[in-house]
Amino acid sequence: MPGPPPKREDQRRRRNKHPDGLATVTAAGGKRPKLPRVSPSWHPLMKDWFRSLKESGQSQFYEASDWQTARLLAEIMSQELNSGEPVKASMLGEFNRAAASLMTTEGERRRLRVELQSPQAEQDDGKVVSLMDRYKEKLS
To answer: What values do phi and psi take at 91, rounded to 5?
Structure first.
């Protein structure tokens, strides 16, 4: 989808149908895969990146093939970073595209219509409503 990422669901004014006519389809996923270990040979940045995937909310949607994709990305980028030469822009671009396919950015998650809510945001929702109620009371 070209252009800027869509707004979050709670920031939209209208609830239009998806322009492509797409609907959410659910399918039974495989059993929760055993997560691959961080390789000691990986570059420290790639170790941190891979560990962050394990802690990220979108990882609950990952199948075994997604984890292997992440493992391959970490391996290839580690080789590039450990080579001692500057990282090529084309390699970085390919990494970003592949990482985006794993929903690692907020924009990509919005494009895929996946929204992650922090526990703090759920608690704050009630406060926002009560503030709006007070504001309405003052105006009426």
So the answer is: -65, -40
CA distances in angstroms from 20 to 11, 64, 110, listed in the order given: 21, 29, 16
Q: Could you state, in chain order, the average pLDDT of each consecutive group of 10 residues for the chain (140 residues)?
A: 67 65 55 88 96 89 91 96 94 93 85 74 56 75
* Tokens encoding 49: 């990146």
**For the purposes of burial, counting CB atoms within 10 Å of the CB of 46, is it exposed (0-12), middle (13-18) or buried (19 or more)?**
buried
- pTM, rounded to two decimals: 0.66
Residues 113, 9: Cα–Cα separation, whole Å: 8
| Token reading at 36 | 């691959």
Where do the domains of the chain lie?
31-115
